[in-house]
Amino acid sequence: MKRVLHGFLCRVRERNRSCMEITCNNFKEKHGYIETVIRNASFAAIDLEFLGLEDEEVDMKCSLFDSTQERYEKSLHSVRRFPPAQLGVAFFTALDDGERYKVDVFTFYLFQSISMGRDYSFSIASLSFLSEHGFNFNKLTREGISHMNLDELQRVLERFHQPNGIEIFGAQMPPLFHHLTRIIRSEVAKLRRGSAGSEGAPQHTFPGLPIAISQKLNDLQRAALLYKLHGCTPGIRCELQDQILMVYPSSEPPRDIKKRLFERVCAEMSGVSDVVMAIIERKLPIIGHNSFRDLLYIYEYCIADLPDTLEEFKRLAMSVFPFVADTKILAEECKNRLSVHGVMNYRLESLNAFFESCFVLLRTTKSMHDAGVDAVSTGQSFLRLAHLVSMEERDTSICLPFKTLLYSVRPHANRLPVPLLGVPFINLIGVEPPSRNPEMIILEMIAIDDEAGLNALRKELRGKFGRWRCDVRRHEDNRIHVATNTDTTYWRVFKYYSVHPHYRMLSVPSSTAISSSDSNSFSSSSPEGSIGRPDHHGSSASVDSTSEDSSDSEMSSSIEAPRDIIDSNVVARASELIFDLTPTPAIKWLVALGTCVVAANVLGRQMG
User: Fold this and answer.
1) pLDDT digits (tens, 9 = 90+) for 113-137
2) Which residues span the domain enclosing 571?
3) Based on the domain organization, do 278 and 243 belong to the same domain?
4) Where in the sequence does UniProt note compositional bias of the Low complexity kind (predicted)?
5) Residue 552 half-sphere exposure, CB side, CA atoms within 13 Å?
6) Which strand (E) or helix (H) includes residue 248?
7) Is residue 598 part of a domain?
8) What is the per-residue pLDDT across 168-204, written as a single tens digit (0 to 9) for each?
9) What are 344's strand-pairing partners?
10) Both 603 and 518 in a single domain?
11) Who's near 194: CB < 8 A, 6+ residues apart?
């Protein structure tokens, strides 16, 4: 497959362009260029970095017991508590009917200076993670760009129009505003009286009045100050030049001045939100990797307040982003082709490393977990995976037009994977598929303290089966519910606690789970047979058997699936993979003959 991949990927080239960092210092300068790129782009790949992933409160932690609505509520709580730090957007423009792609990559540093009563927090683990990957926190706080959704903008403007509303832009703003107002009114009145005494001079004419300002203001504070100063004295025009406020006479209609200054205040507050709105107006396809939380962040901080229910969010999300494709979903659709080359988990780093071994689209000195780098990696992976999905339907290695790629992946679009959730994905355009998680296991504690027993059980489950494979919840009396992520894990947990001295098994074994665990024992380490551990982005890393503690080996003799079933499935699975990959009918017949021989040997072992 790597030869075929190189066949079409080597022609998907781009004009080499490094990631462009956008801060408050160059945002206005680059804004026009960004809008031009958006108008010409074919699709936008996104990624975000944020200052926290999961709340430490027990009720807010992700759980295998979560329903889709419960997980949405927990994610909503985290999104509102931990602000975004970076937004990376990679705009891909198809050239020569998809033979080449031009890529423009932007990394926006995000920092909201107006809190409006909202308390933000951060996670120590997330800060450490970002610091290890070279994140510049000084640039974030000093040069971050403002962002604000439409609901927040309306609330801020309502507050701003109140008599002392300028205080929302900083505690130093009201004293500064009142000080400048007194000086302007006094000095302008003197200048006007002096100019009125000059022969032939109109009464409103006076030379420019310079006023020094000691405080250093950001662009938003400067715009708000000029808007407020305009209303204090009629017939004037104010300009801020560094730390000097210049006051000039003006014959421009006050309504026009007020409108222009008001639009400037709104633009300063919106910031990066204007870029998101331009993407929405252009109706660009959005590409992400494990993008459920990314979409929540973009909607909450750049579009509008998130609703309380998942169903309402799905409706609103489709109204602004009609086409969303997730590379993790596409990778799962191509799992057979990817697994042949050892790609057993679908983290962005793994996909990017594999595809880069075929062809490197964009070279950069920055590491992963920079939002811009992750965004362009997501876009590159999308192009490769979209071709693989198309190759399932047409056995060809030609470079397909972008519209053809979109048509091929449309059946898998608008699906968002969510780690540690029973359903395979959240469907933005319909009902979610049924849960893949097995039935719950019910245990009863025997002669031990309730709380100590629960904590001991939780610790034991993590040690024996892995941190992300099992979850426990107290039900009633001494009964405990145990949730597992796969049928294989269910089978192992059931067998282990059926003979445990401190717990009594109350559940009846699930025939579906046990039979499925036998058939999945060969592929238990594959992404389709596991629910991954969320990394910093909320992406899932597949949990294979090697991630468990060594204590698993101590009980392997008592909980291992039957050897004959494993052998049978190894033969069946291996023969399918080899048969699909063999190029000629002659080799296919040889593979079939070899499979029959191996199957006969397995049957012989089973019978005697």
Assistant:
1) 787 777 888 888 889 989 888 899 9
2) 565-607
3) no
4) 516-530
5) 18
6) strand 244-249
7) yes
8) 998 899 999 999 999 888 888 777 776 655 544 445 5
9) none
10) no
11) 206
